[in-house]
Design a protein that fits this description.
The protein is an alpha/beta fold and 249 residues long. The chain has one domain: NAD(P)-binding Rossmann-like Domain (Rossmann fold, 3-Layer(aba) Sandwich), CATH 3.40.50. The protein contains nine helices and seven strands; from the N terminus they run E-H-E-H-E-H-E-H-E-H-H-E-H-H-H-E. A seven-stranded parallel sheet has the order 3-2-1-4-5-6-7, with helices on both faces. The two termini are 33 Å apart. 44% of the residues are buried. It binds NADPH dihydro-nicotinamide-adenine-dinucleotide phosphate. The site of NADPH dihydro-nicotinamide-adenine-dinucleotide phosphate has 27 residues, from helix 1 and strand 2.
Length: 249
């Protein structure tokens, strides 16, 4: 893994931060993408400096994952300043929940652009480099709700579910080139956002999870670490469900 570069989109967020720490600990040059219009550069720099103080050598890269040209600029900068991206974790995501009869066009497109079109933008921009190098990993962070659907999430479930088709098709295209393409579908993960939900509501959610607790961001990062490593070389086109038994298939 020496000198391999791992980019996590939306890397300064709840799960992204833990993934970046794990990838840095594993010895990769971990780069967190952030978008300066939603996360000010000063905040991203503080995020980087705090992690460096903790001993994680992480980098940051500004780019709007919904915008192909912005992603192209970002990858150009990463290539020249850090190195070619070997591991891409498509993690940036948002929710804009509403039942379909109340969903606005904006809510639909915002979610599709951020959660799905971002996967095209970033994967398209790294795939040629990976093919030329004969090695690569693309890991899409989907969701259990892409597998089972969720009330008020036609937009989010559609985007997350489409990631499976994308991964399977691209996996076929690049299987002989040393590149794997997979999805991870987390269940309920105890990020600060989830832990901020009222305790009585949290208890009701936990009651639906067979193992009886939320997952941790570390448990998602463990799977990213495994798929990124050579141990995961024979896993491609797969969806790894990390959901405590919430949905089995
Ligand atoms: P966060 O909101 O903490 O992380 C998502 C990150 O993506 C944020 O940093 C966000 O920035 C960033 N982002 C949003 N829009 C853009 C953009 N246009 N360009 C670049 N970055 C952008 O959420 P989580 O860490 O909880 O989620 C990470 C992934 O895991 C998501 O894809 C989510 O759908 C998935 N997931 C999470 C689960 C959970 O229980 N937490 C369960 C299942 C799946 P900002 O915050 O400023 O908008």
């Amino acid at each position: 893994m020496a000198n391999k570069v791992a980019l996590v989109t939306g890397g300064t967020g709840g799960i992204g931060t833990v993934m970046c720490k794990r990838l840095a600990k594993d010895g990769y040059k971990a780069v967190a993408n952030y978008y300066s219009k939603v996360v000010p550069t000063a905040d991203a720099e503080k995020w980087r400096d705090d992690l460096r103080k903790e001993g994680y050598d992480v980098h940051i890269a500004d780019g709007d994952v919904t915008n192909f040209a912005s992603c192209a600029d970002m990858f150009k900068k990463i290539n020249s300043e850090i190195g070619q991206v070997d591991i891409l974790v498509n993690n940036a995501g948002i929710t804009r929940d509403a039942p379909l009869h109340k969903m606005t066009e904006q809510q639909w497109y915002d979610v599709i652009n951020t959660n799905l079109n971002s996967v095209f933008n970033c994967s398209r921009l790294v795939i040629e480099g990976m093919i030329a190098k004969g090695w690569g990993r693309i890991i899409n962070i989907s969701s259990v709700n892409g597998q089972k659907g969720a009330y008020g999430q036609t937009n989010y479930s559609s985007a997350k579910s489409a990631m499976y088709g994308f991964a399977k098709s691209l996996a076929l295209e690049v299987a002989k080139k040393g590149i794997t393409v997979n999805c991870i579908s987390p269940g309920y993960i105890g990020t600060s956002m989830v832990m901020a939900i009222k305790e009585e509501i949290r208890e009701k959610i936990v009651a639906q999870v067979p193992v009886g607790r939320f997952g941790s961001p570390e448990e998602i990062a463990n799977m990213v670490s495994y798929l990124a490593s050579d141990l995961g070389a024979y896993i491609t086109g797969a969806n790894m469900a990390v959901n405590g038994g919430l949905h089995m298939y």
